[in-house]
From TrEMBL:
It comes from Flavobacterium chungbukense. The gene is leuS. Its main location: cytoplasm. It catalyses: tRNA(Leu) + L-leucine + ATP = L-leucyl-tRNA(Leu) + AMP + diphosphate. The keyword Nucleotide-binding applies. This is Leucine--tRNA ligase.
Length: 957
């Protein structure tokens, strides 16, 4: 009976689907375990062999936990809103919902392309997903709840004193009773203090404007990354080298009225929460750096000849007397107000130039020195000296106050800036000599950035103090004169939540007198309308501005025709949509109760599953999705919905599987191609070709290559001994490099279990490793060898023989190793152990049921299809998926005998197996009586017999 993986795969995938084998229960006597993958965006390109790596790892772990007796929730869904679908819609005229559906379910799109479909590809690999809980963020029954969460955020404020969010109605009550003077809230910086009497006298619109300064999601004019080519705002991680990651369009900084999320309110909790979760230190450090906690002082500098002040946050108030100049971000509100007429042209030109650089680019570029003097001067708070005010793009408007007090003697970047512009014509007298305030420190060559061994000098009342004492005293004196105060600052900024796109969650918002109003939750979802064009309108409005039916009727409580807007009972709806991260910031909770129509999840389901026990996904989400998810979870915890503070207990970042590209070498300026080994004789250029045309020996069929693309059709090919050899290069797997390997092809040729085992065998889960299809045959061979332990050509050969000691030793070594490896996520070494075990059992000619049944269970998490088939052939009527994992017994690994090398004068002549509990005397007696010893001695008596029990036997003389 031969191993036929295609038949076996199809049989068991059908069985699992029909029997809902992996459906988790929301109430079970078993302990729960929640295993989650970062859910994918379903692109039309489908999966390549690099994509399933994390999914296979999580599946191995999920199956293992079921064998251990856990009720496992292992769901899958799709992050199906996003810019790629919208761009494809613009290019092809297809509706994003149609292309998204085809990308997931498979089929033929409008352009006639055959799309495999994510769902079918995932099923083909044999994952134990609970498909009954599938979610798609672009389905109205899902984003109804995303809209509801947005409303909760809008109707909440954050109390600093209690460190949590509360309903906005509670804040209104405080305002009505005592005003806002004593309110400790996270809010806008420019809040005006008012009394209860003043609040109660305000109009409703005035009150709403004030409340927007406190709400956790709010409208504000914000600096954003605007991409004219895409007609939308982009997040920092969607920009590469100053252009959009998608399409390569230029990006500029621009002020726009946007919805924002007050994630900054949760900065400290996000920071402290990292201490309570089992994540890699590198991911935690990325989040710590992004949150960027700094303890220092907020210092106020008056601007000379203007009724304006510059606020600066500094971690080094001890250096206040070393301030040589000040720098504002080019976007800072004060720039236009304080720039002198003489400097106006230069300043405006510089602002125009820097608007084309993204924040990320500006932060990363530490080499370029650029700036312009505004012509204005600030006043030192203590000495009253004039301090020149510059603008420079190394200062960011959204970080801190958008201004720095430059102390060149203590900061390398300030030092470089001061030296670059000292005496420079553009400085126009605006760059004084560098002040040195550190005693016994030479700053002629470089700044002194250390806080250690600092003694302050040339600093009035700070003279002679160290860093710590000078910092405290400087803050005290600033507070005393009313020009500063101690402050903790965070780099983390509020997240812009608006996108000028079509394919995203609609906001449940309409506008009355320009102020936002929330649609009541009972009328959700507000469903995305159909539009003819997915581009912005001719007058620059977002794509929803093209919608004919997009206004809110407050009497009928429904969406109506846009031309009915009368601003009396029918109002304009929000034209922006939510960003891609909205739906992914809470999806793990929806999986807990995916079909609940009234709530995003019931309290009972949330209480049972609590949080994700294991989360697997890419490290690229460290400061995006993972940070936003933690924020939303903490907010929902505050409001009594989420049961835990943190959503993901343990996080593992899988590495990347790289492609092994194939290259042919064209002689420069010709259509002539040479085999790799001959390129030293020519001047050549390398061209990528389809890796699937190349065999394991790096040979390509030239005739096939000629048919692949027209450029090769008339090419001349110079062979090497009758063969054309290609070059190889390891790089990211991408259609661009023609190095994509389709997992469907591997499954069709070798079966899903071979793919699963091979991906786990490639190397440690968290490391990046190259793909080589050539190595897959070895894993396929292993599965065939495993099969032969159970079957020969005539059928099942498993017997009821008593297992031997060696059989049991091989089995229990494997039980111990596999259990430990899965718990430690060392999947590659488990596969090695399987191979060792099968080789040993084969050489032992073992066909004992007592050994092969538990071996089947051990293999099941990795190769579930063959395991199910073997289990069934062994006579079991139910799935192997929840059969108890074999128990390791130490006694089978305890050695009772030892094979001793027997040496004569230090040379080993033979071996002898003896019990380990024998004494030296007993060992000597047995060895001396052995006929092989007698033959070696040939009648002589040894001078000495050296015996080390358990190690050596040596006869001397």
């Amino acid at each position: 009976m031969k191993y036929n993986p295609n038949e076996i795969d199809a049989k068991w995938q059908k069985y699992w689907a029909e029997n809902q084998t992996f459906a988790a229960k929301n109430n079970s006597e078993k302990p729960k375990h929640y295993v989650l993958d970062m859910f994918p965006y379903p692109s039309g390109a489908g999966l390549h062999v690099g994509h399933p790596l994390g999914y296979i790892a999580s599946d191995v772990y999920s199956r293992f936990k079921r064998h251990q007796g856990f009720n496992v929730l292992h769901p899958m869904g799709y992050d199906s809103f996003g810019l790629p679908a919208e761009q494809y819609a613009i290019q092809t005229g297809q509706r994003p919902e149609d292309t998204t559906r085809v990308n997931i379910d498979g089929g033929v799109d409008k352009e006639g392309k055959q799309i495999a479909g994510y769902r079918k590809q995932l099923d083909k690999i044999g994952f134990s997903f609970d498909w009954s809980r599938e979610v798609r963020t672009s389905n109205p029954d899902y984003y109804k709840h995303t809209q509801w969460i947005f409303i909760q955020l809008f109707n909440s404020w954050y109390c600093r004193k209690q460190g949590k969010a509360f309903d906005i109605s509670e804040l209104v009550t405080v305002f009505e009773e005592s005003g806002n003077a004593l309110v400790e809230a996270v809010c806008d910086d420019n809040v005006v203090i008012f009394t209860a009497e003043e609040w109660n006298s305000y109009s409703e619109d005035q009150k709403e404007k004030i409340l927007l300064q406190y709400r956790l999601t709010y409208l504000a004019e914000t600096e954003v990354n605007w991409c004219p080519g895409l007609g939308t705002v982009l997040a920092n991680d969607e920009i590469v080298n100053g252009v959009s990651e998608r399409g390569g369009f230029p990006v500029i900084r621009k002020k726009m009225t946007q919805w924002s999320m007050r994630i900054s309110a949760y900065a400290e909790r996000l920071l402290q929460g990292l201490n309570d979760i089992d994540w890699s230190e590198s991911i935690k450090e990325s989040q710590r750096n992004w949150i960027g906690k700094s303890v220092g002082a907020l210092v106020t500098f008056n601007v000379k000849n203007h009724n304006e002040v510059i606020e600066v946050f500094t971690t080094r108030p001890d250096t206040i007397f070393g301030v040589t100049f000040m720098t504002l971000a080019p976007e800072h509100d004060l720039v236009a107000k304080i720039t002198t007429p003489e400097q106006k042209e230069a300043v405006e030109a510089y602002i125009e130039k820097t608007s084309k650089r993204s924040e990320r680019e500006r932060m990363a570029d530490v080499k370029t020195i650029s700036g312009v003097f505004t012509g204005a001067y600030a006043e030192h708070p203590f000495t009253k000296e004039a301090i020149p005010v510059w603008i420079g793009d190394y200062v960011l408007a959204g970080y801190g106050t958008g201004a720095v007090m430059a102390v060149p003697c203590g900061d390398e970047r300030d030092y470089a800036f001061a030296n670059f512009f000292k005496g420079h014509p553009e400085a126009s007298g605006g760059m004084p000599p560098i002040k040195n305030i550190f005693a016994n420190v030479d700053i002629s060559e470089a700044a002194y950035g250390s806080k250690d061994n600092v003694e302050i000098t040339a600093s009035d009342f700070l003279n002679g103090l160290n860093y710590k004492d000078a910092k405290s005293k400087a803050i005290y004196k600033l507070e005393e004169i009313g020009q500063g105060k101690g402050k903790t600052n965070y780099r983390l900024r509020d997240a812009v939540f608006s996108r000028q796109r079509y394919w995203g969650e609609p906001f449940p918002v309409y506008y009355v007198n320009g102020l936002p109003k929330m649609i009541d939750a009972q009328h959700l979802p507000i469903i995305l309308p159909e539009v003819e064009k997915y581009l912005p309108t001719e007058d620059g409005l977002p794509p929803l501005g093209n919608a004919a039916v997009w206004a809110w009727d407050t009497k009928q409580n429904k969406v109506v025709n846009t031309d009915l807007v009368d601003n009396v009972s029918i109002f304009a709806l929000e034209l922006n949509t939510m960003p891609g991260w909205a739906g992914s910031s809470w999806y793990w909770m929806r999986y807990m109760d995916a079909h609940n129509e009234n709530e995003f999840a019931s309290k009972e389901a949330l209480a049972y599953w609590e949080s994700v026990d294991l989360y697997i996904g890419g490290s690229e989400h460290a400061t995006g999705h993972l940070l936003y998810s933690r924020f939303w979870n903490k907010f929902l915890k505050d409001k009594g919905f989420a049961p835990t503070e943190e959503p993901f207990k343990k996080l593992i970042n899988q590495g990347m599987i790289l492609g092994t590209s194939a290259l042919v070498y064209r002689v420069s300026g010709t259509n002539k191609y040479v085999s790799k080994n001959l390129i030293g004789n020519y001047e050549t250029e390398a061209l990528h070709i389809d890796v699937n045309m190349v065999n394991a020996a790096d040979e390509i069929d030239v005739e096939r290559l000629k048919r692949w693309q027209p450029q090769f059709e008339d090419g001349e090919f110079i062979l090497d001994n009758g063969k054309f050899i290609v070059g190889r290069e390891v790089e990211k797997m991408s259609k661009r490099w023609y190095n994509v390997v389709n997992p469907d092809d591997i499954c069709n040729e070798y079966g899903a279990d071979t793919l699963r085992l091979y991906e786990m065998f490639l190397g440690p889960l968290e490391q990046t490793k190259p793909w080589s299809t050539g190595g897959i045959t070895g894993v396929f061979g292993f599965l065939k060898k495993l099969w032969r332990l159970y079957f020969d050509d005539n059928g099942l050969i498993v017997n009821n023989d008593e297992p031997t000691k060696d059989n049991l030793k091989s089995l229990h070594k494997t039980i111990k190793k596999v259990a430990e490896d899965i718990e430690n996520f060392s999947f590659n070494t488990s596969v090695s152990q399987f191979m060792i075990c099968v080789n040993e059992l084969s050489s032992q000619n073992c066909h004992s049921r007592a050994i092969l049944e538990p071996l089947t269970i051990l293999v099941s998490p990795y190769a579930p299809h063959i395991a199910e088939e073997l289990w069934s052939q062994l006579g079991h009527a139910t799935s192997i998926s929840e059969v108890a994992f074999p128990i390791f017994e130490e006694k089978h690994l305890v050695e009772t005998n030892k094979e001793y090398p027997v040496s004569f004068n230090g040379k080993m002549r033979f071996t002898i197996e003896l019990p380990l509990d024998l004494t030296k005397e007993q060992i000597e007696e047995i060895v001396m009586k052995d006929e092989r010893t007698q033959k070696q001695l040939d009648g002589r008596t040894p001078n000495k017999v050296i015996i080390v029990p358990g190690k050596i036997i040596n006869l001397v003389g």
